[in-house]
């Protein structure tokens, strides 16, 4: 949807070995998280799985990742895509002011966010996605379904569901 309704030309999915806001012990192994991204976007020419953070100090911070990507690909203009829930906590991110100053941020709405973040966080580089499809769906909900042995057939692509089943993830 964002490729069709914004000026974005490609979307890169950056797999992170260690998000500083999450306990690493709760995450799948790095290689599996990257593999899930790859199988999820396979065959989509305007999507790319990126492992840049696998070669950076951990935990990885978005500002550092963007700097490395910008240095490695100087002819590209990078933006950040995030859900409204992440925008709400952006002020807690390392050097968030630098991200706001140097990069466009596209914010996808989340139905659980009730406050008007356009008013709370106005900035010329923050672009709120309008008239987009919104679902109440989270990774934790999908993991819970798998743990309970319930179907994820219409929530995950077939290759992702197959990989998760073959690796026996989230059953415990």
Written overview of the protein:
With 172 residues, the chain is of the alpha/beta class. Helix content is 36%, strand content 12%. It has helices at residues 2-5, 30-41, 62-72, 84-88, 96-102, 117-120, 139-147, 158-167, and strands at residues 11-14, 47-50, 79-83, 104-108, 126-128. The strands form 2 sheets. The chain has a 3-stranded parallel sheet with strand order 3-4-5. A two-stranded parallel ribbon has the order 1-2. Helix 2 (30-41) runs antiparallel to helix 8. The model has no long low-confidence stretch (mean pLDDT 90).
The succession of helices and strands, N to C, reads HEHEHEHHEHEHH
Q: How much β-strand is present in the residues?
A: 5-15%
Kindly, what is the distance between the CA atoms of the first and last residues, rounded to a whole number of angstroms? 34 Å
Helix content: 25-40%
| Total beta strands | 5
Radius of gyration equals 17 Å
How would you sum up the global shape? globular
Strand order of the largest sheet: 3-4-5
The average pLDDT score comes to: 90
Q: What's the oligomerization state? A: single chain
The secondary structure category is alpha/beta
Largest sheet: 3 strands, parallel
Counting DSSP H or I runs of 4 or more residues, the number of helices is 8
Question: Low-confidence spans: pLDDT under 50, at least 5 residues?
Answer: none
């Amino acid at each position: 949807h964002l490729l069709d309704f914004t000026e974005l030309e490609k979307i890169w999915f950056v797999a992170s070995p260690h998000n500083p806001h999450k306990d690493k012990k709760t995450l799948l192994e790095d290689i599996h998280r990257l593999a899930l991204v790859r199988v999820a976007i396979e065959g989509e020419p305007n999507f790319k799985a990126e492992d840049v953070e696998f070669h950076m100090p951990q935990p990885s911070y978005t500002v550092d990742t963007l700097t490395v990507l910008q240095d490695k690909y100087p002819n590209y203009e990078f933006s950040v895509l995030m859900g409204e829930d992440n925008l709400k906590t952006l002020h807690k991110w390392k050097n968030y002011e630098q991200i706001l100053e140097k990069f466009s941020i596209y914010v996808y709405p989340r139905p659980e966010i009730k406050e008007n973040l356009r008013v709370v966080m106005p900035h010329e580089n923050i672009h709120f996605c309008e008239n987009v499809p919104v679902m109440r769906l989270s990774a934790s909900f999908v993991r819970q379904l798998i743990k309970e042995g319930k179907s994820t057939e219409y929530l995950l692509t077939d290759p992702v569901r197959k990989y998760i089943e073959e690796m026996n993830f989230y059953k415990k």
